[in-house]
Design a protein that fits this description.
This protein has two domains: 104 residues; 147 residues, Thrombin, subunit H (Beta Barrel). The chain is built from three helices and twelve strands, in the order H-H-H-E-E-E-E-E-E-E-E-E-E-E-E. Helix content is 35%, strand content 23%. The strands form two sheets. It has a six-stranded antiparallel beta barrel. Strands 8-7-6-9-10-11 form a six-stranded antiparallel β-sheet, with no helix packed on it. It holds the Pfam family MreC. Involved in formation and maintenance of cell shape. This is Cell shape-determining protein MreC. One of its GO terms (cellular component) is plasma membrane.
């Protein structure tokens, strides 16, 4: 009985590499790997079918194994999205509160303005009619800075009316046909616009020079003018209504006060032509612009 118990405790271990040393086994594996790599490099299609078969076999398993990671990523994205939405919602609420405050301030200022107008018996500004037109032509070259719009006398367009884009003043109508009109741009050498420098209330004349930047003229020598000051129409002379946005001051290298217009004419596709009542005191000039 003792012999049977001893025999039952004996385990025979067999390994295919028991007669090969560990160093020799490593060499064999390296040679086999090198052989496989060489064959796959010389004839790539040899193992193509095997790879496809293996991929087909393991793809369901890979899909199952990757599902938890995909779900985790989806949950993470959802949590991140909710955090961003909360932050954006908070920001919008704060902006809404500020806008409500500004709205109340605007209502108070409007009421105060109406009261002052009534007290001073100020004549209210006439309502302005406008026509929206498309820019259909551009004569921008070294000698002429004008554009053609798709609205004319049939649409009520008249000579001298202001032309604006969504950003600011573009120019004025100088010729009006039946269905089209020509616009003299601010940058044209014949353009002269009475303007006002916001902040200093200093008046000047914006003069085109057939370049991208018209220049401010007839400023007093002691005028304190800096880069970034806003320029609007002054309304003097009755050519344009007051307060139309024109551009910002840009001091040139020569020290002259240029103005960068708000409206980039090269990118304007539609304009608004404003019918401003003509000043009856204006005298028609003898010369005609083109």
């Amino acid at each position: 009985m003792a012999k049977r118990r001893n025999r039952s405790k004996v385990h025979v271990q067999f390994s295919p590499f028991q007669f090969i040393g560990s160093g020799q086994a490593s060499i064999i594996f390296m040679l086999a790997a090198t052989l496989l790599l060489t064959v796959s490099f010389v004839r790539p299609g040899v193992f193509g079918g095997v790879r496809n078969s293996v991929s087909d076999i393991i793809s369901p398993a890979l899909a199952i194994l990757s599902e938890p990671f995909r779900q985790a990523a989806a949950v993470t994205n959802s949590v991140t999205g909710l955090s961003e939405l909360r932050a954006e919602n908070t920001q919008l609420r704060e902006e809404n509160i500020r806008l409500r405050e500004w709205y109340q301030t605007a209502l108070m200022l409007e009421s105060e303005n109406q009261s002052l107008h009534a007290l001073l018996n100020v004549k209210p500004d006439p309502t302005h009619r406008f026509v929206t037109a498309r820019v259909i032509g551009d004569s921008g070259n070294a000698f002429v800075k004008s554009a053609i719009v798709s609205a004319g006398q049939d649409d009520g367009i008249k000579k001298g009316e202001a032309v604006l884009s969504g950003d600011g003043l573009v120019g004025r109508i100088i010729e009006a046909g039946n269905s089209s009109a020509r616009v003299l741009l601010l940058t044209d050498v014949n353009s002269r616009v009475p303007v006002l420098i916001e902040g200093s209330r200093q008046k000047a004349i914006l003069s085109g020079e057939n370049t991208d930047l018209p220049v401010l003229k007839y400023l007093p020598a002691d005028t304190d003018i800096k880069n970034g000051m806003r320029i609007v129409t002054s309304g003097n002379g009755g050519m344009f209504m007051s307060g139309l946005p024109v551009g910002v001051v840009q001091i040139g290298e020569d020290g002259r006060p240029y103005v960068k217009p708000y409206s980039d004419v090269s990118r304007v596709t539609h304009v608004r032509i404003v019918d401003y009542p003509e000043n009856p005191n204006l005298i028609e000039g003898k010369g005609n612009l083109r």
